[in-house]
Amino acid sequence: MTILLLFGSNVFMTFAWYGHLKYGHSWPLWKVILISWAIALIEYCLAVPANRLGFGTFTGFQLKILQEAITLTVFLGFAVTYLKERMAWNYAVSFALLIAAVVVAFAFKPIAAS
Asked: Would 85 disulfide with which of 15, 73, 79, 90, CB 3.0-4.6 Å?
């Protein structure tokens, strides 16, 4: 459930932050900010429960690393389909390194604080 909520929250946040780049150039900045805030409210309504439900199953560090990987995955689809941008080799390598970070974060047990 946590991963689905984080995925959903990222879809809304990506549109809140970047959706106006394609069509909103003629809008005044205040309008873009208000619309983005309205979209971001939905994002928060998904992200906060995702983190609350996930904490305990995941550590805070794992939740954040998972969040960043999901953010990048959502943005990748958004940039290619909505913004019509090309995926370059350096972006693909960067993406792979972030996925490697997720693997490292989840593959090993954290050392308990003493």
From this structure: 79
Q: Specify the 3-state DSSP secondary structure of 73.
A: helix
The overall average pLDDT reported for the chain is 90
| Domain span holding position 16 | 2-107
Residue 48 lies in a domain: yes
**Span 8-51, pLDDT tens digits:** 999 999 999 998 888 878 889 999 999 999 999 999 999 999 99
Q: Is residue 113 part of a domain?
A: no
3-state SS, residue 85? coil
Q: What is the pTM of this model?
A: 0.79
Distance separating alpha carbons of residues 83 and 109, to the nearest angstrom: 39
User: Count of domains in the chain?
Assistant: 1
**What's the rounded Cα separation, in Å, for the pair 20 and 10?**
16
